[in-house]
Specification:
By secondary structure, the chain is α+β, with helices and mostly antiparallel strands. It has 2 domains: 199 residues, Thrombin, subunit H, CATH 2.40.10; 75 residues, Immunoglobulin-like. It has 4 helices and 19 strands. A hairpin with a 4-residue loop joins strand 14 and strand 15. The longest helix has 25 residues. The radius of gyration is 23 Å and the shape is globular. The two termini are 32 Å apart.
């Protein structure tokens, strides 16, 4: 059993369920996200613009009682994460696919939470990747570091021990400190220490309903800052912080008086709350300079170069409001939410051309249709 992987999916061909062709990530009770090449390998077809038909064998092998079932396509983006820095001439960019299970996963299967980071925050990010090579059918975990300093659409991944091969494709890059999945691994057919990673914000552009890891407070932000450092220095700092914390608790216990004074009446303070999140194109690229406002409260802000925005309110969290997003060249978007919500992911669509033809872009996301099948 591997800690932190109750969402891990093993994918194979229906005719040979014992032979893994790749991996996937459970992102809901009935939905699995993986790479398009994994679905193509399971169905024995080449990846193309049209979604293939048929069912693939799906397994959750790390549960106390493994789950086995099948899944069908409900979303197909065959060329996502295109970036000339990581794709050789003539190579097909990695794609994304979403499968719907024939029945809900058992309660012991916890869906993964995706965490969309700013592109520059992937540098030196330490993650764990789990695959199912033939010599380790029960799963093998590899520790790796993100190698690129600007992961706008795809980034490099380098293992510091072991190798990454085809069965790792589609698996989640698990951050044990943040307890979140930072993206999907794309591995070469032959074992190697290097692979690629499709960041989480590209996955959310394909399937916005996937759960997102929310900010858990100052402690989580401090651990995230440590995780941004080089792995070796980050481990040393964690040990130092742990030692200082224990020393501080001991000092507080020693200095604590036997009787506590009566608490004073706390002065009244003004309550403040936030609504924050990101604004993306359907390709997964952030949109800077977008006007985000809450008309009912007269609060507005603009997104930064990473597509991030933050709206401040002088009231307690919990009230239902509507967020309006407007940008030249895009269709306006109204999103219902509540004050205090963080991690919103808003995707703006461009207006359809007059002749109805789809718009083609360099990254292949808008030119590749998303296919929604009925349940």
């Amino acid at each position: 059993m591997h800690d932190g992987h109750p969402w891990q999916v093993r994918i194979s061909a229906p005719a040979h369920p014992e032979e893994s062709v790749g991996s996937g990530v459970l992102i809901g009770a009935r939905h699995v996200i993986t790479c398009a090449s994994v679905v193509g390998a399971a169905l024995g077809v080449a990846v193309g613009p049209e979604p293939p038909g048929g069912e693939v064998a799906v397994e959750l092998p790390l549960l106390p009682i493994p789950y086995r079932g099948s899944g069908t396509l409900v979303a197909w983006v065959p060329e996502a994460g295109w970036d000339p820095r990581w794709n050789t001439p003539g190579a097909r960019p990695p794609g994304i696919a979403v499968l719907q299970l024939g029945e809900p996963a058992p309660a012991t299967a916890t869906p993964a939470r995706l965490e969309p980071l700013a592109p520059s925050h992937y540098r030196n990010r330490a993650v764990f990747c789990l695959g199912f090579p033939p010599e380790a059918p029960a799963g093998r975990r590899v520790h790796a570091d993100c190698a690129n300093a600007d992961a706008a659409t795809i980034t490099g991944l380098e293992a510091d021990h072991g190798t990454i091969e085809r069965s790792f494709t589609g698996t989640g890059a698990w951050d044990p400190i943040r307890e979140s999945v930072l993206g999907l691994v794309v591995a070469d057919e032959f074992p190697s220490a290097r692979a690629l990673l499709i960041p989480a914000h590209c996955l959310l552009a394909v399937w916005p309903e996937a759960p997102v890891q929310s900010d858990r407070g100052t402690g989580a932000r401090l651990l995230g800052w440590v995780a941004d450092l080089d792995t070796r220095r980050g481990n040393l700092l964690l040990r130092l912080f742990a030692g200082l914390a224990f020393a501080g608790l001991g000092l507080i216990w020693w200095l604590e008086p036997d009787t506590l004074p009566a608490p004073e009446q706390a002065p009244s303070v003004m309550v403040s709350s936030l609504i924050s999140g990101f604004v993306w194109e359907p390709t997964g690229k952030p949109i800077p300079g977008v006007r985000v406002l809450v008309p009912a409260r007269g609060v507005a802000a603009e997104t930064d170069r990473f597509g991030h925005f933050s709206l401040g309110f002088q009231e307690a969290a919990g009230a239902a409001v509507e967020v309006l997003v407007m940008a030249p060249g895009y269709q306006s978007l109204t999103e219902p939410t509540r004050i205090g919500e963080s991690g919103l992911n808003l995707v703006l669509q461009r207006p359809e051309p007059l002749d109805g033809a789809p718009t083609e872009t360099g990254d292949g996301l808008e030119g590749s249709p998303r296919v929604d099948y009925p349940d």
